[in-house]
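Q: Given only this backbone (489 positions), what sequence would you predict?
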């Protein structure tokens, strides 16, 4: 059974606290929704404001494949604004629970039905397609709900929608409710909210109960806890419900999700299904190993299916297998010993609480690959005393030609002090530091510090770098690497 998708990111989604989209942003999202194969786009609520109407008009004049709807109350004023925007259809919202009818509208059920029927007649007279949404349907008396739908159908509505406005259905009650409505002859749609985290589950149950259309928002944004998440619901239908399908181009889902996150400023939790940062990331060693052998071991779907790529996160659970394949992807070939050293270094950083990115990994690998066993000078230890009331003092322990030497120095700052501690040793005589440059590579104060220096001895000039989370270590390493190079050449 083919399921139609109505996306309401631009209406219910925009009602997310703190979200307000410009016309241009709404247009970009609508374009993407049309491209990905959404059947119906609820572009906004025409009554809201002049700006909102401008946005809807921009969308309706584009001639998208999708049917464009505006939200409308069963009032002539609302419908007139929808007509002004030239929409194909209206999402005519009629409350059906006692709570909404008596408390919110201060009307009787009879008055409400009159209002609804008159609105439907008016829409039909003006050539609008109508999807009639029963607001708070899940808390309405089922017989009354049915009678409202039946009346509406007699007056010519094209589709009806059952709204779980405050998200109180469960998969069982959702199934039952839709099952009770299954003798209705027009397409039935399901509009769920995620107050108990059940919106997607309830929507899937609604399909089993007889719904043939679903309402979604991209990333599940919407009032309070949001709506049925488009990406979760559509991929679930595709993968988990063999009897149902949609026309959505699933491989573009991640793109749409990213666009909406960026434009709305509502960022996606890392562990969100399908589109969350971690949805296809693997850290643990055993998992990574399994994934590399056969991705089905620890992934229910491949990331490519939804337009993503797999990621191996480097951390303390990482195994050498996952690490090696990541290094290969970065174009780095290492031997067993080097791999083990890189692995130890990454875990050392992870233990200090740092997330190791690809850039970090590249640096760590470069550092290991650059270890040259022919080097005459090796740094063993550097200790600094520094502060605003003391003269920066450094003591260094280095091995020169297998002899360990301890030396100390003072300077204007800790870097200066540690270089002075080294440079007073014999082997560094005649070496001049002619350039010193510092850069931080990744953001944050826990970033890798990249120190690039130029050294001169006689007419020979070499450059060297040291990249470490610690600026002193980075500087000393760069200095020693440069001198080793000078001695080698
Ligand atoms: Mn809603």
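A: Predicted residues:
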């Amino acid at each position: 059974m083919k399921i139609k998708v109505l996306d309401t990111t631009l209406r219910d989604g925009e009602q997310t606290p703190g979200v307000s989209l410009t016309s241009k942003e709404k247009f970009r999202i609508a374009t993407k929704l049309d491209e990905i194969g959404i059947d119906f786009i609820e572009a906004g609520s025409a009554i809201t404001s002049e700006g909102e109407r401008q946005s809807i008009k921009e969308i309706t004049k584009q001639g998208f494949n999708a049917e464009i709807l505006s939200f409308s109350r069963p009032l002539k004023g609302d419908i007139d604004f929808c007509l002004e925007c030239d929409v194909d259809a209206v999402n005519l919202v009629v409350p059906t629970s006692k709570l909404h009818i008596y408390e919110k509208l201060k009307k009787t059920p009879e008055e409400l039905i009159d209002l609804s029927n008159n609105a439907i007649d008016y829409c039909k007279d003006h050539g609008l397609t109508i999807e009639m949404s029963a607001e708070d349907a899940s808390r309405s008396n089922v017989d009354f709900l049915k009678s409202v739908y039946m009346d509406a159908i007699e007056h010519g509505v094209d589709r009806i929608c059952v709204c779980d406005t405050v998200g109180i259905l469960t998969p069982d009650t959702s199934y039952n409710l839709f099952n009770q409505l299954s003798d209705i002859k027009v397409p039935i749609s399901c509009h769920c909210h995620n107050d108990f985290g059940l919106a997607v589950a309830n929507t899937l149950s609604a399909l089993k109960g007889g719904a043939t259309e679903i309402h979604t928002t991209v990333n599940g944004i919407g009032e309070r806890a949001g709506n049925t998440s488009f990406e979760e619901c559509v991929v679930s239908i595709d993968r988990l419900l063999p009897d149902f399908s949609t026309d959505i181009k699933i491989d573009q889902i991640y793109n749409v999700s990213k666009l909406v996150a960026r434009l709305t400023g509502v960022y996606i939790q890392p562990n969100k299904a399908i589109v969350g940062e971690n949805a296809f990331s693997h850290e643990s060693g055993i998992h990574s190993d399994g994934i590399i052998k056969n991705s089905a071991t620890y992934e229910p779907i491949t990331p490519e299916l939804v337009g993503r790529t797999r990621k191996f996160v480097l951390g303390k659970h990482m195994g050498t297998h996952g690490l090696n394949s990541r290094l290969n992807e970065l174009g780095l070939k290492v031997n067993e010993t080097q791999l083990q050293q890189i692995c130890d270094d990454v875990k050392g950083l992870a233990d200090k609480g740092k997330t190791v990115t690809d850039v970090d990994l590249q640096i760590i690998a470069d550092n290991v690959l650059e270890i040259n066993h022919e080097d005459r000078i090796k740094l063993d230890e550097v200790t600094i005393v520094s502060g605003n009331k003391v003269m920066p003092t450094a003591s260094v322990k280095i091995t020169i030609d297998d002899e360990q030497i301890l030396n100390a120095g003072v300077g204007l700052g800790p870097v200066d002090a540690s270089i002075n501690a080294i440079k007073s040793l014999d082997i560094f005589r005649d070496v001049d530091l002619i350039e010193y440059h510092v850069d931080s590579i990744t953001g944050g104060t826990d970033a890798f510090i990249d120190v690039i220096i130029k050294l001169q001895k006689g007419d020979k000039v070499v450059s060297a770098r040291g990249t470490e989370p610690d600026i002193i270590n980075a500087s000393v390493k760069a200095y020693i690497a440069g001198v080793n190079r000078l001695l080698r050449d």
